[in-house]
Amino acid sequence: MFFNTLEYIVFFLTTFLVYWLVTPQRYRKNLLILFGFLFYFVAGQFVRVFVFGLDILVFYIGKLLFKYKEGEKKRKIAFIIGLVSVVGSLVFFKYTNMLIGIMEQISGKDLPMLTVAMPVGISFFTFEFIHYLTDIYYGKIKPHSFKDFLLFSFFYPTLVSGPIKRFQVFIDSFQKLTAQSFFQGILVVFLGYFYKFVIADSLLPLTEILSNPQAGDSYTIGLSLYAYNFRLFFDFAGYSLIAIGCALLLGWQVPKNFDKPFISSNPSEFWKRWHMSLNSWIKDYIYIFLGGSRRGIVRTAFNLILIMAIFGLWHGAGLNFLVWGVYHGIGLAVYHIFFKKLNLSNPAFKALGIVFTFNFIVFGWVFFATNSLNDSFIAIGKLFYLM
């Protein structure tokens, strides 16, 4: 059940009316958890029953991490078990078939593919679980009740497309519905649907050639990449706004995901403005863990390329997504090594930076928008008159 369906609109309106007009305040969290379960079952995601077991495991391990004293060996073991369970679930559902495909190419044999449906939103809620366990382990947050954890996990406006929430911030964000928050929520939801249906969907025909680049030429491939850039932004930003607005209408706040990314004057600034909840997560839980930029130029470049490779694979289980991530990792590494310390505050330099960054981002979509890495290279060949 996605935001662009009538079923979702009816489902949310039912939630909203029952939540505010029928349900006593002390039972409203229970109601949202119930609707979170229903959201998955209406969508046909019965595999979520398995993931509910993962919810229980993560919550229980969080309790153990808080109970055990710092330095205890069993505390570290519990933390590792939790992370392996969460990451293992993500790898199993999302990347097994990609790995099987690679093994097929190496062995030359046909291997059976995984046929289990992938839970909707698994890329989002697994990252939220990793944040939850890690922050408890390092003493940044304390576990709450199981009800609060289920609300955090099953809050359905953010299940499909994020944004990625932080537990303590989300749980503390509840506010009663006021006239101001009601109209603000309505406005944000309508803006999200406008982004999605009016702008993003109208650009779709201009991007279809990227699904079959063999039929394109330099002009059509180039036009499609620029159109895809804006279609993806308005599509994803639209979904994010709908999630943010629906959350506001239910009295909760979730982080924003986009902040005018196309005025960025360098790749680093772009990634601070694009998919902000994911990028801040990767910075906090992977980049800093790897040492960030504190261990010299070579290590910084390696860290940037590695985290962007992970970023690419998070978006899709394919080699083209991996190359897309590495492409941006190299861009970030070059910026940090050669340009970050330069004084580029001059308006002319800033304008040139915006133009360069925009086109650097647009070209990168050739790996993201095509169906395979082979199609990506075909599109590049067509774009530069090489094919």
Question: Can you walk me through this structure?
Answer:
With 387 residues, this protein is mostly helical. The chain has 2 domains: 6-172, no CATH class; 181-383, no CATH class. It contains 15 helices and no strands. The protein has helices at residues 6-22, 28-42, 48-67, 73-107, 122-137, 146-154, 167-171, 179-207, 218-249, 267-273, 276-287, 297-315, 319-339, 347-369, 373-383. The two termini are 41 Å apart.
- What's the overall average pLDDT, rounded? 91
Largest sheet: none
What general outline do the C-alpha atoms trace?
globular
User: Terminal Cα separation, in Å?
Assistant: 41 Å
Strand content: under 5%
How many E-type strands? 0
Structural class: mainly alpha
Helix coverage percent:
over 70%
Which residues sit in consecutive blocks of at least 5 with pLDDT less than 50?
none
Number of domains: 2
Briefly characterize the structure:
The chain has 387 residues and is mostly helical.
Walk me through the topology.
Layout: H1 6-22, H2 28-42, H3 48-67, H4 73-107, H5 122-137, H6 146-154, H7 167-171, H8 179-207, H9 218-249, H10 267-273, H11 276-287, H12 297-315, H13 319-339, H14 347-369, H15 373-383
Record keyword descriptors for this entry.
387 residues; 15 helices; 2 domains; mainly alpha
